[in-house]
Amino acid sequence: MKTLYLLRHGKSDWESDFNSDHERGLAKRGIESTHRMGQYLIDYGFNVDLCLCSDAVRCKRTWELLSEMDSFASKVEFSNNVYEANSDKLFELIKETADEKESLLLIGHNPGLEELAEYLVLGDNLDELHNPLFSKFPTAAFLGLSLSVDSWRDITPGHGSIISYWIPGRKGR
């Protein structure tokens, strides 16, 4: 059994100076929601074997803020392959995870994360869906999926079971 967690970075800062999208940091709201996310993760008892994080500034900063609150991952890798990756690319990155890692946290961006979440939970039934399950997977959204496989390379669309879905600032999640 493998466990996959998806976390979208906190709200990005469009007001500060930056030379490229890759260099955008977090807005004040993004910092606040990341702190709320960190408290949720502490309360949840969250810990993973590996965190694979986009190397974009807003994702790295999201991880840094979380790390200041607790040690949530045994190992962290920052990767440009996560930045602007579509769901197919993210799916392939997950499948490349070493099998000794039982749990993986992926910190990235939309629309890739939203599409990946839909793909893992619903599979090829997306065309029949009128209301997306994770419509607008918002900033700082956290999703936990249980995957009934022994090897990451064996994951398939539509076989992820939701074990947690939480969005800072929303009740009942």
Break the fold down into its secondary structure elements and pairings:
Blueprint: E1 2-8, H1 28-44, E2 50-54, H2 57-69, E3 76-79, H3 87-95, E4 103-108, H4 112-122, E5 142-147, E6 160-166
Parallel strand pairs: 1-4, 2-3, 2-4
Antiparallel strand pairs: 1-5, 5-6
Helix pairs in contact: 1-2, 3-4
Which terms would index this structure?
single chain, 173 residues, alpha/beta, Rossmann fold, 6-stranded mixed sheet, 4 helices, 29% helix, globular
Give the second-level CATH assignment, the architecture: 3-Layer(aba) Sandwich
Q: Whole-Å distance between the termini?
A: 24 Å
What is the top-level CATH class? Alpha Beta
The whole-number mean of residue pLDDT values reads: 90
Strand residue percentage: 15-25%
The total of helices stands at 4
Count of spatially separate domains: 1
Helix content: 25-40%
Shape: globular
Number of strands: 6
What does this protein look like?
- The protein is of the alpha/beta class and 173 residues long.
- It has helices at residues 28-44, 57-69, 87-95, 112-122, and strands at 2-8, 50-54, 76-79, 103-108, 142-147, 160-166.
- Strand 2, helix 2 and strand 3 (76-79) form a beta-alpha-beta unit.
- Helix 1 (28-44) crosses helix 2.
- The longest helix has 17 residues, at 28-44.
- The protein is globular and about 45 Å long.
Could you provide a short overview of the structure?
With 173 residues, this protein is an alpha/beta fold.
